[in-house]
Amino acid sequence: MDLGINGKWALVCAASKGLGKGCAAALVREGVHVVITARGDEALQATAAELRALNPAVQVRTVAGDITTAEGRAAALAACPQVDILVNNAGGPPAGDFREWNRDTWIAALDANMLTPIELIKATVDGMAERGFGRVVNITSAAVKAPYEALGLSNGARTGLTGFVAGLARQSRLASRNVTINNLLPGPFDTDRLRSNTAAVAQRAGQGFDALWEQRRLSNPTQRFGRADEFGAACAFLCSVYTGYMTGQNLMLDGGAYPGTF
Q1: What is the spatial distance between Cα 26 and Cα 3, in angstroms, rounded to a whole number?
Q2: Which of 72, 120, 159, 237 is 20 to 30 Å apart from 110, CA to CA?
Q3: To which H or E segment does residue 194 belong?
Q4: Distance between alpha carbon 62 and the CA centroid of its chain, in Å?
Q5: pLDDT (tens digit, 9 = 90+) per residue, 58-102?
Q6: C-alpha 13 chain-centroid distance
Q7: How many Å apart are CA 77 and CA 63, to the nearest integer?
Q8: Cα distance between residue 108 and residue 217, in whole Å
Q9: Cα(129)–Cα(188) distance, rounded to whole angstroms?
């Protein structure tokens, strides 16, 4: 299926590994030129080489830096000739007990998982509207619909972003100009993030990592963890020409773990 986005430009944040990398790879396969960001330059360059090998016809540009800072965002935006597709992503805040968190801890979580995506959206959606095409995909979390007890920082910050997007996506000056804003809500995917969170939970509970990891795998209806490539494929579809009538939505990818009807 041709998604109709060949030749577009995308900015994909936190794309050196995990779900961000999966999204960048799926877009590159569709002929999208990408600017990828991450804090660590070594991993970023390795990913860029992999992406170029996937599709030598596209441009892959890298920006190493902290996307949660004004300087990091400015550098990423400057590297992208025009942002037709924006994939917002940032590593989630650590697990823990809210009694241990102070104001600075909360501000860091909000900066990474709520305010940075909003700043990047603000910097790009008007240009998208002028050109008559734009796709924003925010990688949030299944915790938005089913909060995780140990991930209070993530629960709060990502839910705040979801509420903001719900209003913005429905502004007619964007939606009527073929600019859509949607959220992808990953459940348990086999990523470094899931492994680190599982290790933290196991340590607090006095359990072994392997036993808890296996327990989590078997508790999912699919009895497996998700893969970054299938997450990326869902992202690419949301960025396609076929989703102009789909905006302000929260698409859950969790193997059926969420038990609700809605």
Answers
A1: 11
A2: 237
A3: helix 192-205
A4: 17
A5: 999 999 999 999 999 999 999 999 999 999 999 888 888 899 999
A6: 7
A7: 9
A8: 30
A9: 34
